[in-house]
Write a structure and sequence with these properties.
six-stranded antiparallel beta barrel, 7 helices, globular, 14% helix, Trypsin_dom, disordered N terminus, Peptidase_S1_PA, mainly beta, 23 strands
């Protein structure tokens, strides 16, 4: 456990965005891409029709009736050995500390939006770009928050790195699916999307470095289960972005210069044992300003913290949205929920943090956006 003055506890948090190809005509961007591309890895999950069918068969309709029994993933679920002690004391989260040990790229894009946000599809439900991901590590099911990301392949989901890859086991999650806007009883109103591959930074894969606790997952076309003569069959419902829309992506946005709203499906207990949330409803922390933060025991040198947020486990991977339009439910992604904090030691979470989305994050996204998937799965 951490000292009362600065107590850090891991939690689970989800996010969506819509992007178009970026870096056009910007020399610095091209240089940064060349520098960072070698640090990005894409790991194949379900690539063939047989793979997709295997995953789909695992998530038959009756499986969703028991999602309340699955564990909301936390960094402790999928962190490197030295990171699992999200129990080591973290020093004061100051901007100076983050700047001193910054791992920023040698060449960066200018801060700003890489693409305009996409409107949700006609008739889409409130917050339809956001949802839950379900997966397994070993023989145990987990879930996190996540959201659709607009991309040229129209098939990208953003979430936390620990919701897709476990550095302790050097292993990607299995049976990974995304369910946008899930119902409280496991309903899948806009389909189920099986992961084709995940794109991550090598320092999350190899070290569990929390500066890179994010993943962009390329998914197959969605499907819905249809009961025909007492047998469930898969029915193709199209590409993710066509069905739910997405958010724009913001990179190199300096903390303190913007306000952000965070989203997710909190479910875990507070440090005092109370459970104010049940994980069935999409929640939003109030919009607030961000600050730099750092936690050397977790290799977190350039984290971004949002205060006055009581999110708990279940919200990992949920989106940080800039310029959130409450009417159209769109905006731009600037981070994902990674860690939760009890800063004053009163046994209640009071802040969340995200890795800083810089040029490197944009490069990881681009890798996911470039992946191809079959034109039809069912």
């Amino acid at each position: 456990m951490i000292s009362r003055a600065r107590q850090l506890l891991a939690a689970a948090l989800s996010g969506a965005l819509l992007m178009l190809p970026a870096h056009t005509g910007i020399a610095a961007a091209q240089s940064a891409h060349a520098t960072t591309a070698g640090k990005v890895q894409s790991i194949a999950l379900a690539r063939t029709a047989a793979d997709v069918k295997r995953v789909a068969d695992y998530w038959k309709p009756e499986k969703f009736k028991h999602t309340d029994s699955y564990s909301p993933a936390t960094p402790g679920t999928a962190a490197a050995p030295r990171s699992t002690s999200a129990g080591a004391a973290a020093g004061p989260a100051t901007r100076a500390a983050a700047n001193t040990a910054s791992k920023a790229s040698t060449a960066k894009l200018s801060a700003g939006r890489l693409a305009a946000p996409a409107l949700p599809a006609k008739g889409a439900q409130v917050g339809s770009t956001m949802g839950k991901v379900f997966f397994r590590f070993g023989d145990k099911e987990y879930w996190c928050s996540a959201s659709a990301v607009a991309a040229r392949n129209r098939s990208v989901v953003a979430t936390a790195g620990h919701c897709a890859y476990d550095p302790r086991q050097a292993k990607a999650a299995d049976y990974w699916i995304f369910v946008p806007n899930p119902g409280p009883n496991g309903e899948q109103p806009t389909g189920i999307y099986v992961a084709s591959s995940i794109s991550l930074h090598e320092d999350w894969i190899g070290r569990g470095d929390y500066d890179y606790d994010y993943a962009f997952v390329t998914v197959h076309r969605g499907f819905a289960w249809v009961n025909k003569n007492g047998q469930y069959t898969m029915q193709d419902v199209g590409r993710l972005q066509d069905n739910v829309g997405g958010l724009g992506l913001e990179i190199n946005k300096k903390p303190g210069t913007y306000t952000v709203a965070t989203f997710g499906y909190p479910a875990g207990a507070q440090p005092d044992g109370s459970r104010p949330y049940d994980g069935k409803t999409l929640r939003m922390c109030r919009e607030g300003r961000t600050i730099w933060n750092a936690a050397p025991p977790l290799d977190l040198q350039k984290g971004v913290q949002l205060q006055a947020c009581d999110f708990s486990a279940g919200t990992s991977g949920g989106p940080w949205v800039i310029d959130f339009d409450r009417t159209r439910k769109i905006g731009s992604l600037a981070g994902v929920n990674s860690l939760t904090w009890d800063r004053d030691g009163d046994k209640r979470y009071d802040a969340v943090s995200s890795p800083y989305f810089d040029t490197v994050a944009g490069t990881v996204y681009q890798r996911a956006a470039a992946q191809r998937t079959p034109a039809k799965i069912a």
